[in-house]
Amino acid sequence: xxxxxxxxxxxxxxPKKWVGTIFVILWLLSSLAFGDKVCKFTYKGxxxxxxxxxxxxxxxxxxxxxxxxxxxxxxxxxxxxxPSIFFVIDNSSSMWGGNSKDKWGARFxxxxxxxxxxxxxxxxxxxxxxxFGEYLFFRxxxxxxxxxxxxxxxxxxxxxxxxxxxxxxxxxxxxxYQILKDWxxxxxxxxxxxxxxxxxxxxxxxxSDSADPNxxxxxxxxxxxxxxxxxxxxxxxQYVIFFSDGEANRPSNLIEQNRYRNGDTVPTxxxxxxxxxxxxxxxxxxxTNNIRANGYSSSNxxxxxxxxxxxxxxxxxxxxxxxxxxxxxxxxxxxxxxxxGGSNGSTWDSTGFALNKILPLTGEVTTxxxxxxxxxxxxxxxxxxxxxxxxxxxxxxxxxxxxxISDTFDVKCWDRFVNFRYNNRNITVANETMNQLSVRFxxxxxxxKYNYTNAxxxxxxxxxxxxxxxxxxxxxxxxxxxxxxxxxxxxxxxGKLQHAGHDTLVAVFYNSEATKLPLxxxxxxxxxxxxxxxxxxSVEYWDKKLGAVAGADGLxxxxxxxxxxxxxxxxxxELKSVFKFEGRSFxxxxxxxSLTNSNKTIKLNVTESANPARTSTDNTDKCVVTKLIYLxxxxxxxQGSYSVIDKMAPVINKASLVDFQDPNKTDSLTIxxxxxxxxxxxxxxxxxxxxxxxxxxxxxxQRLATSDVNVLFSIVGFQPSSISGVGAGDSIWIRxxxxxxxxxxxxxxxxxxxxxxxxxxFILNPFNIExxxxxxxxxxxxxxxxYSDTINLDPINIQELINYGNHNNNQYxxxxxxxxxDDITDLHKDFLLEGELSIYDPVGNAIIxxxxxxxxxxxxxxxxxxxxxNANGRKVARGTYLAVSNxxxxxxxxxxxxxxRKEVDRTLLGVxx
Length: 913
Prior knowledge:
Number of strands: 60
Distance between the termini: 106 Å
Strand content: 35-45%
Shape: flat
Structural class: mainly beta
């Protein structure tokens, strides 16, 4: 199968750091190391600029392709006069922002690349650089050497003046070339402005990466004009190369903002305008026309402006073929021959050369040298001379971390496979029954068109130490060889592979063609093991615990691992360490393993930690064989994961009873099961245990509703009939009959399945504070029996309940206040009340606070008589007051305090005289 890599633009437009002279290339392919795919690649960038450059490629690369791209590059030795060149570079945010035209810094990389070319071919050239945004970019305050120059017409910023490339400059003796390269270093930045490639230099002060969207073209050209005043070259050999993408919007003074359009005293200028459009802006066209006609030099009419689409073109190639062609006065060079890494090519097809062989990569780093011969011609096509461009110290590095693809490469790959075979079928494991094996090598060249004419295979046994080299037979795409194997001592060279009882058999292919590719290697391994594979047929979870107390508790206590064939105790001993159970928390030891079912089932006793219990299985329940293991006692088992089969019946996790203290209301029972259950239709599916008598009884129920694992029942009676209701401390469990089953129809059949306590919730009718009588109230009043629905008031008992406070003992009158249920006649069970009463005035001041109320058993009522006086015995003012009672209800009496509940009630007392 052929794989061709197509990708994003790289080269000078790539979002990656450049290393060496120009760039670093990174791309994405999969690992070579004994993989099944290898590749050759062609670098599609400018080959002439590869000297002292390292490109990094990923592990699958084994060769440089036989095709080398070479451009019709113009050589600067055709320039009649050594030039002075000043680069004006736009660095406003539109060049590098989110939707910018040059986010990956091609303008800086190309400027640096042209300086490299000039340094090699014209070291006497003078080069300067002006970078601008709203101001000139560089700052003299950041330059301890004092080399940066100020521009008189600009208030802020500085520029790099003209430096002769081969001349040394104080204070540190660096050459002009080194100084320029230092200032033009780039890196991948990722800050508030986003990710981009930009100059590593950051101006300080007065600069913010995220706050300089402005474009001051006038500042850039003022720097160029000021710099050229110190040029040592004739006016006709002075040039400005201008990179930009926008219209000027600074300074705010429109006259100054657009002054650059005049083109006054500006040398010959070549403008590359970054745009997706075919037309540059009118202002830059006006500037270019004015520069052509300004009379600065005889070469000024050659000034030109080009729209440049940075998304589809190589900026370096564009500048070489357009700008430098004009600087060279129209002379062109045509590639004639190439020698690359010892391989030759002699026919240039307008794009590149086809070499007579591919170029092997020989290790982690492979170094190449090349010579390209050009014919130099004048504008009329008349041959002038041949010139040779030498490429030295070009390196290709194999880097496993490379993870990006680039259109800078043309990549072609081919797949190869090595397989061990038995009876014409691929195998991954061999055993003692397989005496004759074969190895097959297969190639799928695809468009890579890489065929093999011969193939040799090295066979080894890792443990046995034997090694045999076998010549394979076949055609260009398919080779094979048969060999014998045996358990025994190594005998290299006898044509038979000896190995140990448990061993790894290795087949290694190395490229042995006329043009060897050392990195084209392929390895395949299989294991040899005595015995056969141990295969898991199923895994089951059981809840079988039988005991005097617990019984089935809804927790897994037995795991059954069923096999397709029997194993022995020695094999079981080795298998114990490879099992892991996901989705559950088990504890067990080696002694919990055993064999059952004619040694075809591994039984494991476990203790599960879980709350609540879960008796169903889902996709989280897995039995995992953690590793491939070859057993010393024979056989082997694969690494893998197995789903678990549910063999557990439901149990009760929680039970709640709502007991209405009202004979007209039916009590309700909610059961939470350990898993969803089928519809329960039996009238008595549960057993209950009465804590008070230690007796077992049953409840007759009707199912009302089901929601997931929760089932709601109504209780319609008890058996025996002597049971009047569920009491405190009672508990419940499933009757072990075919009445409660999960969705797999697995019924709970264990007699002593888990018993759960019943959470009781008693509900009485609502309680209220009532005013039985308003002031005055006299217990000796003959009409007292007319109060409270004919309830007779016993004067003696009432006197015992009255809180006299500071009153005179002879005053037995006041406001009678009581707390009781709304409908006392419906109560059919005993309950007790305890409580206190507080009375507050309208603004919240306590009149009396937390006074004990009396309880009348026959009334089931708390009572209090308030005489209209405060805690100090003083009579309160006429008005409305708030009575608040805090009381506790004991539904089963005070012998069952855990069933009690606290209540608060309040009411407004009428006008007190």
